[in-house]
Amino acid sequence: MAKFKFLLISNGNVEDNLILAGFKEMASPGNPFRLLAEEQIALLTLKTQDIDTAVDKLKSILEDAELTDTMRQRVSQLLMSLGVDPSSL
Fold this sequence. Notes:
This protein is mainly alpha-helical. The protein contains five helices and no strands. The longest helix has 14 residues, at 34-47.
């Protein structure tokens, strides 16, 4: 949890590629913060204007068996803001 929080608060103070690398490391199978890290990866990808890659990442989160209702709602709202209907997935 400490690493996840560190990466979150480092945003803006550390280069995005280093933060992205940290979240990618946390997104490995078995990590309890995997889906939260995946969500942050999608947000950082949006920051680089790579909308298609971010949408693909968000779609993969919605398909994950470990997805919580709260995260489903958050990811669905983000997809809707990007013009993607999450109910069609």
